[in-house]
UniProtKB/TrEMBL annotation:
Name the record gives this protein: MBL fold metallo-hydrolase
Regions crossing the membrane: none
Domain Metallo-beta-lactamase: 12-191
InterPro entries: MBL_Glyoxalase_II, Metallo-B-lactamas, RibonucZ/Hydroxyglut_hydro
Cofactor(s), by name: Zn(2+)
Keywords recorded for this protein, A-Z: Hydrolase, Metal-binding, Zinc
Pfam families: Lactamase_B
Gene Ontology MF, one: metal ion binding
Family matches, as SMART domains: Lactamase_B
PANTHER family: HYDROXYACYLGLUTATHIONE HYDROLASE GLOC (PTHR46233)
Length: 214
């Protein structure tokens, strides 16, 4: 199994595509550029099985309906953000355009930490709130990767100056959930370059008392 990173949408949010040798795939956070993203998936002869959302802010959901309709696949989202897909105020797109960014409800709601199996793919779902109340991270042991959305970045952490965000909660999520993963785990972030748990343990100023929240 392997994965690819695809910055999409108005703020170049990282979508990730995890796939196996048979072309079966899981899509994380398709944030926009619906038609080019569809074309790229088809060019690679990939067969998506599901969309997994780390959370429901607008920049992570812009291509959700297009991709799920084209490939006829379900969407997974934490239940704490069950209504955010339809609510431009909650997903923070209310000021972007008259209609904002919306998507239909998710077919599957995540409730609590759990193992999640979709076809040949198996994940450990970690609740990692703080940037948003329903933020989750998907740990994929076969590739030593955690798909973490906007929780932990290279030398940074997710914004906590947003509605429903809380810095203490976010830092607790990082320390209690992500930093407990093997140190060689790749962190597939929602923005910017991929990093590793060990690199952030050693050098992230926000985790060592040197950074400022935001």
């Amino acid at each position: 199994m392997n994965w690819k990173q695809a910055p999409l949408g108005p703020v170049q949010t990282n979508a990730f595509v995890l796939y196996n040798e048979d072309g079966e795939a899981i899509i994380f956070d398709p944030g926009g550029d619906s038609e080019p993203f569809e074309a790229a998936l088809k060019k690679e002869n990939l067969k998506p099985l599901a969309i997994l959302l780390t959370h429901a802010h607008f920049d992570h959901i812009g291509a959700v309906d297009h991709i799920r309709d084209v490939f006829n696949i379900p969407v997974y989202l934490h239940e704490r953000e069950a209504h955010w897909l339809q609510d431009p105020t909650k997903n923070l797109s209310v000021n972007m355009s008259p209609e904002g960014v919306t998507a239909r409800p998710a077919e599957h709601l995540i409730n609590g930490e759990q193992s999640l199996a979709i076809g040949p793919f198996a994940f450990r779902v970690l609740e990692t709130p703080g940037h948003s109340p329903g933020s989750v991270s998907y740990y994929h042991e076969p590739t030593d990767t955690v798909f973490s959305g906007d929780v932990l970045f290279q030398s940074g952490i997710g914004r906590t100056d947003l509605p429903d965000a809380d810095e203490a909660t976010l830092l607790n999520s990082i320390h209690q959930k992500l930093l407990e993963l093997p140190e060689d785990t790749s962190v597939a972030c929602g923005h910017g370059p991929v990093t590793t748990i060990s690199a952030e343990m050693d050098g992230n100023p926000f985790l060592n008392g040197l950074g400022e929240g935001g």
